């Protein structure tokens, strides 16, 4: 176990940049998770964990199998430097962003496609919802918040280690999915079928869009069918993560549960 | 239009406390909303608006009918003092919290009951979702975040002016609803019916619970039936606002839409 005392240490500077800038996360294809719950979830995908970072005085739970994972012991000051939370638990995992081969990506047959959703908390909640609903993967198009933003990671509650989350061009994705005969459902307010009138689908891609403007009209031209969640009351719209939950649970086969 | 220049003005101090403390909101049964969208929504329930507060240089949209509403023009410094956001739009409405008579409350026959949900953003999203789903009212039990917290108000996007939101004792509420033969649905992980196996209900109360521990077991003993959202994938749970959306849209009659 190495000990780091200085916030000027180059590794500390790298960790801090992973927390604060998308540029660093993109450049190295890495991210940092914080807290016992997220670190434990990360350790379930051990190949992704580059190192554990532990504040002095914090004990790693005995049941964690971390013998082969590099450890850093850091001072309270260093822990504070790389923490995003007010009351840090003093434990972090420095992780690689998962990557998926072309072949793996071609096997996904139930997908959530997210177009330009800007709020990191919404993106995180949508990843968590996708993981719960059992779909194969989440694809984030242009204009989306970074899925490895600390706020996104926190609201996803560990789902980044459970379901593939990749960034991509949604036009390329819809072309690819069409060529594989996977039905594509958009979301729109007009010319759309109420979600409760749709059947569950063995394979599907669902596209949800920006908090204010919805799905890009050019993408909607590529869909097989557009869905709408009826608004029975006075609210003009639903939160996009809530809408995603209602839509995904409308589309996934109901027999899958064990 | 009165002009206020000092942050030491007693009204400014009252507005600031409405933004920052639940005690002030509870004591006066008032709250402050910020921004063009929320102020416009507030003006749709004009009886609730005690005054408009406008930063110098900010124009009230011409189409707003505000002739009878008291106005205060305030300096940038005063506006900053009472603002909760980083980039304030410089427009606020000082509002009374809506109140409902016993008789009105007895007429509500589709209700969302919230038990000890702590995150203000979740509460706001749930109020917005309830308003969209068309239920009659939202009841917040003990341990819930204040529905008039600025974060809650912001995430509800104006739904506070569209759907009754009241604080109450959920045991009293379940007793009252039972005496009116309104079926009560709890949410639980065991001994529960998958939500997609439930029929839509003309009248119902749905109880959802705390982010970590769910609905109080003592409340669950008073329900007619408990519902569960199956987790088909790896995530251990859903965000409570997402879950509320799936459950409410499972229960509300699907024919209501116009």
**Most extensive interface: pair and counts?**
A-B, 41 and 41 residues
The total number of structural domains of chain A is: 2
Strand content of chain A: 15-25%
Which structural class is indicated by helix and strand composition of chain A?
alpha/beta
What is the spatial order of strands in the main beta sheet of chain A?
A: 8-7-6-11-9-12-10
- The CA-CA distance between the termini of chain A, in Å, is 42 Å
Write the CATH homologous superfamily of the largest domain in chain A. SPOUT methyltransferase, trefoil knot domain
Q: Sheet with the most strands of chain A? A: 7 strands, parallel
Q: What is the CATH topology classification name of the largest domain in chain A?
A: Alpha/beta knot
Number of helical elements of chain A: 10
Helical fraction of chain A equals: 25-40%
Overall pLDDT score of chain A: 96
Q: Uncertain regions of chain A: pLDDT < 50 for 5+ in a row? A: none
Question: What's the SSE pattern of chain A?
Answer: EHHEHEEHEHEHEHEHEEEHEH
Give the class-level CATH name of the largest domain in chain A: Alpha Beta
- Multimeric state of these chains? homodimer
């Amino acid at each position: 176990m190495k000990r780091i005392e200085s916030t000027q240490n180059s590794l500390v500077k790298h960790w801090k940049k992973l927390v604060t800038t998308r540029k660093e996360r993109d450049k190295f294809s890495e991210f940092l998770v914080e807290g016992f719950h997220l670190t434990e979830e990360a350790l379930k995908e051990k190949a992704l964990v580059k190192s554990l970072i532990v504040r002095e005085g914090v004990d790693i739970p005995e049941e964690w199998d971390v013998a082969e994972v590099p450890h850093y012991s850091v001072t309270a000051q260093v822990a504070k430097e790389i923490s995003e939370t007010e009351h840090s638990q003093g434990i972090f995992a420095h992780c690689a962003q998962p990557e998926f081969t072309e072949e793996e990506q071609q096997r996904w047959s139930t997908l959530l496609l997210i177009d330009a959703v800007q709020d990191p908390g919404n993106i995180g909640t949508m990843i968590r919802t996708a993981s719960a609903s059992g779909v194969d993967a989440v694809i984030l198009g242009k204009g989306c918040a970074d899925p490895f933003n600390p706020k996104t990671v926190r609201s996803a509650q560990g789902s980044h280690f459970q379901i593939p989350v990749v960034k991509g061009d949604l036009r390329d994705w819809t072309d690819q999915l069409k060529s594989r005969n996977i039905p594509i459902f958009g979301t729109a307010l007009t010319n759309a079928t109420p979600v409760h009138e749709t059947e569950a689908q063995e394979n599907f891609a669902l596209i949800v869009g920006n908090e204010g403007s919805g799905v890009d009209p050019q993408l909607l031209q590529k869909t097989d069918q557009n869905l709408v969640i009826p608004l029975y009351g006075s609210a003009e719209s639903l939160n996009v993560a809530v809408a995603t939950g209602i839509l995904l649970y409308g589309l996934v086969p109901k027999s899958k549960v064990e």
